[in-house]
Amino acid sequence: MTISVFLLDDHEIVRRGIAQLLETQDDIEVVGEAGTAAQALARIPTLRPDVAILDARLPDGDGVAVCREVRSSVEPPPACLMLTSYSDEEALFGAIMAGAAGYLLKQVTGVDLIGAVRTLAAGGSLLDPQATAQVLQRLRKGDEPVDPRYASLSEQERRILELVADGLTNRQIGAQLYLAEKTVKNYVSSLLGKLGFARRTEAAVYATERRHANRRSGPS
Q1: Bridge partners of 6?
Q2: How confident is the model at residue 139 (pLDDT cuts 50, 70, 90)?
Q3: Percent of the chain with pLDDT over 90
Q4: Which CATH number, 1.10.10.10, 3.10.450.710, 3.30.1390.10, 3.40.50.740, labels domain 148-216?
Q5: What is the DSSP letter of 126?
Q6: What is the pTM of this model?
Q7: In Å, what is the CA distance from 202 to each residue of 21, 35, 151, 172, 188?
Q8: Where in the chain is the domain with CATH 3.40.50.2300?
Q9: What is the pLDDT of residue 132?
Q10: Are β-strands 61-62 and 57-58 bridged in parallel, bridged antiparallel, or unpaired?
Q11: pLDDT higher than threshold 80 for residue 58
């Protein structure tokens, strides 16, 4: 049986490389690609792939949000494999909560990526058991208070919120995240609206207080 795969990555050369790698295998077929979250959300429901390989960081959102949406709206839902350049505990937490079946760094070898696609297509999981256990423990203990305002933020908005708290300007944030300054401004406006703040200084104070609260509730 052929495994159908959808690729989401904002770098065309990365998509091409992964597609060429996967299509060297007789049992894997790349049925679609996208460079933005919006494109992926429009195409995945129609293509209904067995596996969706999703980049965690996107110019118009994040792969975790795409995972959450397609897992809840597409039938049958694809097995989602998050592929990211960064090891990030919060991103892993978000991926698990969104229903992702795998989480890999882009430094993964080609052989391991092919194996991951086959594992997920067969109903397996590639989430680290220890990391998953830590997430479940956080949920059971309620170490991190659930704030519906913060929960409504996308991964990219949370990342930008942290940089706002660090005192970075929109231009500096854009340089760090490889985003246009106008795009950052739009993200800041969006997160301010979701948090119910009028000024970025209020958001910075909010993010700083969250940091302190998380440190106090973490392991000693």
Answers
A1: 32, 52
A2: low
A3: 49
A4: 1.10.10.10
A5: B
A6: 0.64
A7: 47, 33, 17, 19, 12
A8: 3-140
A9: 63
A10: antiparallel
A11: yes
